[in-house]
Amino acid sequence: MHLLGLAATAATYLLLPGATADPLPFERIQLHERDIASLGKASSLLSFGDAPVADPATSHRRAPPTGCKVFPGDKKWPADKAWSNFNNTLNGALIKTVPLAAPCYAGPNYDANRCSYVTANWANSSLHEMDPASVMTGLYQGHTCQIPSNPDDTCTLGGLPSYVVNATTVKQVQLAVNFARNADIRLIVRNTGHDFSGKSGGAGSLSIWTHNLNAIEYVPRFEDQKQGYSGPAFRGGSGVIGRDLFKAAGDKGLLVIGGEGQDVGILGGYLQNGGHSPMSSVYGLAADQVLSISLVTADGRFLTASSTENTDLFWALRGGGASTWGVVTSVTVRAHPSMPISTAQFIFTAKSSAAFWLGVRSYWERFIPYADAGTYSYFMIIPGAPAPTFIMLGFWAPNMTTTETTALLTPWLDDLSALDISVKPAYATYPTTYPALIATWPQEAVQDNAIIGSRLFPRSAWEAPNSETFNKTWEAWSTTNNLLISFNIRAPNALGVDNAVLPAWRETVLHTMQGSGFAPNADDATKRAVRQALTVSMANWKAATPGAGAYIGESDAEEVGWQESFFGKNYDRLLKIKNKYDRDGVFWAKQAVGSECMAVQSNGPIPDENGKLCRVK
Ligand SMILES: Cc1cc2nc3c(=O)[nH]c(=O)nc-3n(C[C@H](O)[C@H](O)[C@H](O)COP(=O)(O)OP(=O)(O)OC[C@H]3O[C@@H](n4cnc5c(N)ncnc54)[C@H](O)[C@@H]3O)c2cc1C
Ligand SMILES: *[C@@H]1O[C@H](CO)[C@@H](O)[C@H](O)[C@H]1NC(C)=O
Ligand SMILES: *[C@@H]1O[C@H](CO)[C@@H](O)[C@H](O)[C@H]1NC(C)=O
Ligand SMILES: *[C@@H]1O[C@H](CO)[C@@H](O)[C@H](O)[C@H]1NC(C)=O
Ligand SMILES: *[C@@H]1O[C@H](CO)[C@@H](O)[C@H](O)[C@H]1NC(C)=O
Ligand SMILES: *[C@@H]1O[C@H](CO)[C@@H](O)[C@H](O)[C@H]1NC(C)=O
């Protein structure tokens, strides 16, 4: 295998001008100051906000007024007429939310045929992605209109937004941001709705749906003198999903960095959170690939952040978290030459738990050499008796042949044989990256009842095999009795960029989640107990990995000390940038930078998005 050719891009950039970013066609349709007056009755709710002000004297935002964001039923909630005027300015793109499962419940939306269809496809993420409001983690929506449906139950919005703007132009995004800010109502940004912590929903909100901002443009040669890049790039709307951009790149003999979930967004929340990928052990994270980002900020203005414009925002947007800085409308990312991929997939269990864990330990001991060889693996361990089951969803080896991959895996597989564990890997090779992505990672089923926690285990724990630290880390990880969803991965700063990616990412060889859940009809006491057990188990992981962090994109919705876990030493700098661009907290999501000043009033056994969003003293 040869993974060292990375720096060898064209050296001509030094003579060329800085980054340029022509807007995509849908971004040329913008709201201007002169338009506001002509909007008639709607205009008072649609004016722009105050321009950003950096205040170096304080790291805290303008003192928030007391009270809550305006909620349906409140006196200040906009009247139907105001919503209808707003809808007119949007050219009819405003949707009043109807829960996806509403056809299964008595009432005006009841529809037996549609109900059968929704019931049969409930676990299919495409169904939810095509819906304007669905939040795939139903747990955080509050399960107020679920499948399977119970005819005696009611169907209410729960944590779903009140209204959704089906955006197809930047102007509509600007109008929506201005409306929410001026009316002081909660604002949500939703792309696919895949967020594990339910951050793409929120009760009593106006939601901006980015799904239809899905244009893709090929840029044969993007010049970014500051970042030292001259080469091919793709610019896409923030609604683009992995599969579509992978194909566009594949058609040009190129690859772009995206997650293994091929129906998950890659230019929306994924990338702002960092974004890990099967190619990360080679090229780093998705946030490292960004050349330019266009967005609508809290004041309603459309701007571009790049290495030469709005550089503070450009830094923050690449790893500093989603739903925080504005509504991203498009992103330009680097493309790399496509390369051959070799993969292996297999499954095993054992006759005893002891043999099983010895077999897994033999793998664990190889995490540094596997990651440093540029490979990535995505695997699960499912609790069971007499032993758990190990599923290698994909051992992914960029630029390797099957012979090379077999050589890498054989010492581990030999250890499994010696433990009387039978395993028959299915190997495959692909001449280019796109077909490998599509064949290796099928669309995953929706898990709407799971709670998870995660940790980026530090490479340092592996540096002295069988040392006390090594053993303590292994013990903490292998004894949770929870479902383990894990990635042997590294995410070096391979491109030498300066962004807000959590430093713990640069040091890890294991991004690992643990998950547990309960039956949909579980009582509150059971839910609380499951939640509490996960909190205890997460504390064990943290105690074994002091100073490490956790990946916000796949994380615990109740993470203790989330500022430190998700943002590390970047937090103070990120907070200053947040306070400059969004002093009033127009963009708010649980655990987002600067979110401490507000909280959702939730009474459920698992905190959800059903209540009012209120200022915290
Ligand atoms: C099947 C599956 C596979 C996954 N695989 C990977 C993987 O390989 N690597 C990885 O890193 N993660 C992975 N994830 C986690 C994934 O990155 C997150 O779910 C991610 O947040 C999804 O982003 P989205 O924009 O599609 O989803 P959404 O749920 O719509 O949005 C996620 C968050 O981003 C915000 N957001 C969305 N669009 C914008 C925008 N345009 N501007 C500002 N904020 C925005 C939302 O408000 C929300 O807070 C996977 C998840 C699933 C369900
Ligand atoms: C892939 O391997 C080939 C030789 O087999 C080498 O020339 C090339 O540089 C490698 N690509 C990367 C990205 O390392
Ligand atoms: C917005 O206008 C369109 C077109 O007139 C209409 O179909 C839609 O129902 C309206 N939305 C709301 C919330 O009234
Ligand atoms: C999910 O739905 C999509 C779109 O309708 C369909 O193409 C796909 O085959 C479905 N997947 C499964 C597993 O049923
Ligand atoms: C959203 O807008 C697009 C483009 O106008 C349209 O095709 C689509 O049907 C709309 N979706 C919904 C759910 O209204
Ligand atoms: C770590 O565990 C291994 C395997 O159980 C054992 O051989 C070794 O002595 C342990 N190391 C320490 C420092 O206890």
From TrEMBL:
This protein's cofactor list reads:
FAD
- Domain named FAD-binding PCMH-type: residues: 157-338
Instruction: State a single Pfam family of this protein.
Output: FAD_binding_4
Q: Can you tell which superkingdom this protein's organism belongs to? A: Eukaryota
Record Gene3D superfamilies: 3.30.465.10
Q: Where are the transmembrane segments?
A: none
The residues forming the signal peptide are: 1-21
Keywords from the UniProt entry: FAD, Flavoprotein, Oxidoreductase, Signal
List GO molecular-function terms, semicolon-separated: FAD binding; oxidoreductase activity
Q: Which PANTHER family does this one have?
A: BINDING OXIDOREDUCTASE, PUTATIVE (AFU_ORTHOLOGUE AFUA_1G17690)-RELATED (PTHR42973), FAD-BINDING PCMH-TYPE DOMAIN-CONTAINING PROTEIN (PTHR42973:SF39)
Family, as annotated: Belongs to the oxygen-dependent FAD-linked oxidoreductase family.
The name on file for this protein is FAD-binding protein
The protein's organism comes out as: Venustampulla echinocandica
